[in-house]
Amino acid sequence: MNPKRGKAIAVVAGAGAILLLGQAGGLRDYIQESWYQGGQPQAEAVFAMQADDESGQEANLRKEIEAEALKLNEQPIDAVVDRVWKAVPGYNGREVDAQATYLRTVEKRKLAEPGSAEVSKIYYVYREIKPKISLEDLGPQPIYKGNPHKKMAALMINVAWGNEYIKPMLDTLDQEGVKATFFLDGSWLKKNPEMAKEIQARGHEIENHAYSHPNMSQLSKERATLEIVKTKQLLKDTLGVNNTWFAPPSGDFNQRTVEIAAAQGLKTVLWTVDTVDWKNPDPASVIAKISRKAEAGSLILMHPTASSKASLKGIIQALKAKGLKPGTVAETLSSDRLDDPEG
């Protein structure tokens, strides 16, 4: 036999043996044994072949991730002062974390069933990018809606009366797995601390609705300040709440009101869609109105009334049917993204 041909056959046979042993978990042992038995060049060659193959696969995967990242990355959206809607919050961008995506993909593929789609899937990991301009940077401005790129809608429930409807509404929110924001009138809170604690115990956001339900624009600066501060302190003392948002009673306010609230660290919130439930509309008409008018970022105003008690479930379902996540004011006005940060 030709010596060169015999040597080639031996190398191929040795490579086959190494691959088989590698599958059984013995590749390292075989290389070590070959090394000590004088097969150092042969073992090194096969190990290098496998390393080159793995290196090539790694490089290809990294290139694929980088190429797809260009399509998947999204720039953040700055908060702005709109001519009509006033302060509109920003929305975080996202970018693919290439290294984390690579490591996650390698790990997931190791666990995948051979031949399954998961073997070739890329498991993306994202990181969020904050806007350069946030809601806080806009100064004292009223807020009527969230960012239209964030598919959420907030449920605002202003409470100054209507105790008999609160628990049924809380039960509906529990059943639907939804949290809302309850803006409490301070005088109501003082008379109904246990009811307020029940709202809090159910996991809802609790905020400031002034103290005596006044028309804020008609008050002196001192009286307007007192209305906000008194309820802010009561929320802290009764519920341990660090107040963030202020909803003017009846939606009555002026720029001075916004500035007074801002001086107390509160942002003034109005609404996008009003149920006008205090007029006791037919629940079906309320649901139809929400279905027609609610959009991404909508703040939906209601009160504890017979109409809202009866329509609340339908409102929530109408929002979900439009692809909107019902939630709190804080969630809706946050710049945080809704999508899974690990994609």
CATH architecture of the largest domain: Alpha-Beta Barrel
Helicity, as a percent range: 40-55%
Number of helices: 12
Number of domains: 3
* Beta-strand residue percentage: 5-15%
Measure the end-to-end span: 59 Å
- String of helices and strands: HHHEEEHEEHEHHEHEHEEHEHEH
Protein name: NodB homology domain-containing protein
Pfam families: Polysacc_deac_1
GO molecular function: hydrolase activity, acting on carbon-nitrogen (but not peptide) bonds
Domain NodB homology: 151-327
Question: What would you note in describing this structure?
Answer:
The chain has three domains: 3-71; 93-129, no CATH class; 139-333, Glycoside hydrolase/deacetylase (TIM Barrel), CATH 3.20.20.370. Helix 2 packs antiparallel against helix 3 and helix 8 (221-239) crosses helix 9 (255-263). The protein is built from twelve helices and twelve strands. The strands form four sheets. Strands 5, 6, 7, 10, 11 and 12 form a six-stranded parallel β-sheet that branches. A two-stranded antiparallel ribbon has the order 1-2. The chain has a two-stranded antiparallel sheet with strand order 3-4. By secondary structure, it is of the alpha/beta class. One of its GO terms (biological process) is carbohydrate metabolic process. This is NodB homology domain-containing protein. Residues 151-327 form the NodB homology domain. InterPro entries: Glyco_hydro/deAcase_b/a-brl, NODB_dom, Polysacc_deacetylase_ArnD.
